[in-house]
Amino acid sequence: MPSLIDLRRRIRAVKNTQQITKAMKMVAASKLRRAQERIINARPYASQMQRVLSSVATRVDPSIHPLLTVREPRPDSKTLVIVVTGDKGLCGSFNTNAIKAGAAYILESPQKCTLGLVGRKGRDFFARRGFAVLFEQIGIFQKLRYEDARVIAQTAIDAFVAGDVDRVVLVYNEFRSVSVAARDRGPTAAHRSRGSRRRADAGAEPDRLLSANRRRRRSSISCSLASSRCRSIARCSSRTRPSSPLR
To answer: Domain spans of the chain?
Structure first.
């Protein structure tokens, strides 16, 4: 059995560990808040830029630029799938969602696919399974720069212009809240709104059934309580009933 001194040392060590973890939580919360503010502040500019480029692309002659051409599917056509994951784990399903979405797209696609891997977790997963990889970028999220994004985009542009690939698909996690990061391949806002309405309609009927079951359960409990109360009152009345007078 440990002595009193050992127990005190153990308690002191646990308290010191609690202080360290508390400080780490505060630092992590501060970093997360700053990163979340940067994402939310930059999102309107990115959305507006995408709308402007899409509008311009639909109003000009596709022959003026090679990136505006829409290539018809061919038997030997190939798709470049760029999968964006993190370099580290311990982040829930952040990496798993993107990896599963990329793997599902490759397996379901009728065309041949080659991969562009951004992040160590995605690189390790697909490299171990023998997928064709065009390029990979590791360790860019520690200090993300515009130059890193330009190199990735230029690699995809060169492959498309050279005819090595006929389509480029980007698989990534879209930040919605601290606890929600949705897999995304670029769906429109209308698709998201229709999907949210379908989820709301599908969830309304189970909620109504759940409330009805709760009401039935409450009524059965109240009936059983009332019946038990009546039995207890009857027993008490039979016990306290006055006996007949002696003759």
So the answer is: 75-186, 193-221
> In sequence order, which residues have a C-beta less than 8 Å from that of residue 103 and are 6 or more positions away?
126
Alpha-carbon distance of 115 to 106, in angstroms, equals 9
User: How far is CA 38 from each of CA 41, 42, 44, 97, 110, rounded to the nearest angstrom?
Assistant: 5, 6, 11, 23, 38
Banded model confidence at residue 17, pLDDT cuts 50, 70, 90: very high
Instruction: Please confirm, yes or no, whether 91 is among the known catalytic residues.
Output: yes
- Rg for the chain, CA atoms, rounded: 32
pLDDT digits (tens, 9 = 90+) for 68-119: 888 887 888 899 999 999 998 888 788 999 999 999 999 998 889 999 999 9
Cα(25)–Cα(72) distance, rounded to whole angstroms?
52
**Which among 91, 223, 230, 236 is annotated as catalytic?**
91
- State residue 242 phi and psi, 5-degree precision: -65, 140
pTM: 0.63
What is the helix, strand, coil percentage profile of the chain, to 5?
Answer: 60, 15, 25
The listed CATH number (3.40.1380.10, 1.20.1270.50, 3.40.50.12160, 3.90.1800.10) that belongs to domain 75-186: 3.40.1380.10
